Amino acid sequence: MPILFGGFSLLLLALWIYCIFDVVTTDARDCRNLPKTLWLIIVLVLPDLGSIAWLIAGRPRIVVRPDGREKRAAPVPPDDDEEFLRGLRERVEEQRRKAREQQDRTDEQE
To answer: pTM of the full predicted structure?
Structure first.
């Protein structure tokens, strides 16, 4: 039984150390919900709860770009996301093209 609790304690210690380094190395602009300094204080003062809170609510989200590279970024509203708008325009054009082709086929059959 002591081995189980010792192993669990080591996992919590590793999580705490990981979260400290993650907070310190994260760019202040990318922190979510609270300022970076406050996140560091929370993780240091409340090791277990602070670490879990950082992973859930403070850590930046990772976005994978079309070229395969990862980028940490805050969510972007769809109307500000150029890539989303470009894809939307392409889908609309594709749907219009299909509708025209279908209309042309219907006109030819009549």
So the answer is: 0.55
